[in-house]
Amino acid sequence: MKIAITNGRLVDPKHQIDARQDLYLADGRVAGVGQAPAGFQAEREIDARGLVVCPGLIDLSARPGKLETELKAAVAGGVTTLVCPPDLDPVLDEPELAERLVRQAADLGLARLLPLGALTQNLEGERLAEMAGLRQAGCIAFSQGKRPVLDTQALLRAFEYAATFGYAIWLQPQDYYLSRNGFAHDGEVGSRLGLTGIPVSAETVAIATYLTLAADTGVRLHLRRLSSAAGMGMVAKARAEGVDVTCDVGVHHLHLSEHDIGFFDTSARFDPPLRSLRDRDGLCAGVAAGTAALCSDHTPLDQDDKLVPFGEAKPGATGLELLLPLTLKWAAAAKLPLTAALAPVTSAPAAILGRDDLGHLGLGAQADICLFSAEEPWRVTPHNLRSAGKNTPFLGYEMAGRNKATLVAGQVVFDAL
User: Which end of the chain is more exposed for a tag (fewer CB within 10 A), N or C?
Assistant: First the structure.
């Protein structure tokens, strides 16, 4: 279908565009910006007056849960591409499993799902998974999810193998022995509440190991969900020294700290944990500087998973529908222009994925589009969330910025205009 999106405020971080321009789509791609191609006859016109028109959001970490429900939540939040980890049920360590998941998502015709394949068989950290087959099945990189590789030599062999074939490795930096049995940041709040702490060194020790192996092997390394200012600084330094490393941060870590645990509020239990105010500020600065992309770290959980003592609660919260407003809220506090605000959820994650056709609105790009009202207020309530997971520490908050329509490959998949 040929579509003209008119009268909107076009924001494209990659090309540094923030102007009132029309957008023209054909055959699932961007066919014209500002001016219609010769002979273009729109089959549908979308009036975007009063709305921001930007690339669809790319979420680097989201658990799909019940697939159709969560993909509907994704497009409702303006997320057009999402990456899911391999530690699902079943584990994505066989090509047939990954292929089936990709096909199921494609058949739904909603958001684009890109899975991470298991780095090791059954994520046990010993024998390598069938990387070549997983890659052919649609896996974009390889990861352990939340499972560690305790044998550093096995990890080195995995890095060497991946580097040889040009595969990327995505790891959550958290040392197993320093973090096991921990529930919260090893700081004043956790100590006061009597919660077993996870020190920042659990992250920095792991980062140091991964960066050393990445420098030795030349593998493309992506560090998932950083939580500390020290960790952000290590990544920035390594990038300056030429190490091929990128990273992301859960958007909730830009707004919350260990103090938001309050009196054992399980909605504020995350993995990695919420850390100090200094860490929060360091993460905000790192994202603003372009060192890190943002992700929702979406984890849909049942109420029963949270209505238990803090140490027994499952970590995580719903995030797909909050990625956009929380990103805008962070950018407003940092006084960033809209191009800089949207870069960590559009062009930056597209670059991490190595996808030149995603995350921008240049000619020939995938017609993945988000149309949102930047100022419209709305309150976060269970009723307003389409995800099966209703748990979030932001329940009751009033947000500014609401998605109104989403297109994936030129097809309207969400329409609240």
Answer: C
Please state, rounded to an integer, the average pLDDT across all residues of the chain. 97
**Which pLDDT value is given to residue 22?**
97
**61-91 pLDDT, tens per residue?**
999 999 999 999 999 999 999 999 999 999 9
DSSP assigned state of 282: H
Give the C-alpha separation, 139 to 118, whole Å. 9
Chain position carrying tokens 């969400």? 414
CB contact at 8 A, 248 and 62: no
**Sequential DSSP letters for 138-165:** T--EEE-TT-----HHHHHHHHHHHHHH
Rounded to 5 degrees, φ, ψ at 110 are -115, -120
φ/ψ of 344, rounded to 5, equals -65, -10
- Both tokens of 19, joined, read 């102007």
pTM of the model: 0.97
Please say if 22 is a catalytic residue: no
Q: Which of 248, 297, 305, 368 is catalytic?
A: 297
**Nearest Cα to Cα of residue 336 among 285, 280, 399:** 285
Cβ burial, residue 185 (10 Å; 0-12/13-18/19+): buried
77, 36 contact by CB (below 8 A)? no
For residue 405, the one-letter residue type is A
